[in-house]
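Page 47, continued from p. 46.
Same chain as before, 582 aa.
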Amino acid sequence: AHCTFEQIYFADPASDVYTLTFRTNQQNITGIRLDALPNPENGNLSRGNGNFVLTGFEVQAECGETCAPVPIARAIADFEQEKYPVSAAIDDDSKSGWAVLGHEKKGERRQAVFTFAEPIAGGPGTMLTVRMKHESPHANHNIARFQIALTTVPEPALTTSSAIAPEILAAVLADETARTDEHKELLAKHYRGIAPALEGARTELTAKQDRLAKLIEEIPTTLVTHAVEPRTIRVLPRGNFLDESGEIVEPGTPASLPPLGVEGRRATRLDLAKWLVSPENPLTARVTVNRLWEQFFGTGISKVLDDVGSRGEWPTHPDLLDWMASEFMNSGWDVKHIVRLMVTSSAYKQSSKGSPELREKDPFNRLLTRQSQVRLKAELVRDNALAISGLLSEDIGGRSVYPYQPDGYYDNCNTFRGPLIYTADQGENQYRRGLYTYWKRSFLHPSLLAFDAPTREECTAERTVSNTPMQALVLLNDPTYVEAARVFAAQMLKEGGDTPEARIDYAFQRALCRKPTDAERAVLMNLCGEHMKQFADNPESAKQLVSTGFSPQPEDIDCAELAAWTSVARTILNLHETITRS
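Result:
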């Protein structure tokens, strides 16, 4: 039941008491709601300065011959001015009351709900009297426009909207037989928004909508090109883009290549994409297969990866290249299928040793008389050292990570927010694969740069492969490799056996998949003995070496002994054979 009242007086008294008497047929009435409505002309909630102070709110019920005050057990409001809570409207103190900063927050409606100590039985003919007292010491603080409503829910609560929209009221007042589907949908939607029984569902829905909005905001976006109308393209006389006298041309392919196959219309990017992978254009498949071959054999069937045309190198095995390109297309462009063919072939399974006669006839192994020896890519050099030591994390995916890097390396590197702060990761992120290393053009990670990783400032079809002293220094001194050597040394001491010979054999088998020669074993044993004496004489130096890195140090191994075997492990990790796939 709703009743709306609007007080219009020529004079605004210092204080006032409103007495409202109305009839209701409601039964089991549990509470009453008061909505203070702003004046549509000035936004005021009171007849005076805009604010009101409700010092008393009393209810009296007349049911049949019984007429008695209705005790109010609880009062709640959607907003309370400091020191003027809504509970002050039911405390029998005429100097205290409920206020809402109406003089500051103009145009905002306010709501209070008063819950009865015991429900009113009600029924047909029930008369209710409501008294609203405005007896504050502050003069002219009387509510102007307001609305009251009765409720029968067990626990009355605030509603999300304190006024009924005209279209909702029209649907309520419409005859039941005359209500349209639109009326019913409006009423159902309104009920879902105010029903106390659905408060939990509304709260859950709001939380999920907020979470969805936050997720949408976090989705990375990028700029895309959207061409509404293609530009007119002309042949430029002598390359002069200001001269518009040239012939108008449309998208097409060079005459030496198959046509796009577009008849009677302008070609689009989709046409170009389909042309690139059409059976009549085997060039895409040939280039892809040639690049895959280079990754597994060290050199492509055509050595020039970025030009497999007439200006590149003629393939050493043209029939093989053509067959693999056809197989690639016929398999549905299945990269795994082609890779499987390559790595299970007899050519790939060959040993890289080869006979002296074949090496003399085929010094660069272009005829595939043996397997090629290829220096590992920059990222894999680090991965290999971590894998040998057992530190490598095999987790897939995730954010970029920050391995060890020299302090101050980014001091002169400014971004849009100022100098870049690089903090090395701890825990498992420190040992992620090199694929996930943070990459910044022109300030590439020093270890990757030393092993010929491109800076990505320009497109690189094939990486250079160099052999420099800097690479040896990186393998010896970079914290990543020193830490890997220290952890590897601890494994040699714990799992390699009780003798130096057995430990060196264990290390070679783990790192190089072979046993050491007698000469290699002797050199490493001599190195271990010399460093054992040096570190025993200088414990601080040994402690400094084995403390490199974040991984925990074993407490059951002598520091000097661990440092000496770390030197042996550093030497093994620095071998050319360790960073070469053979």
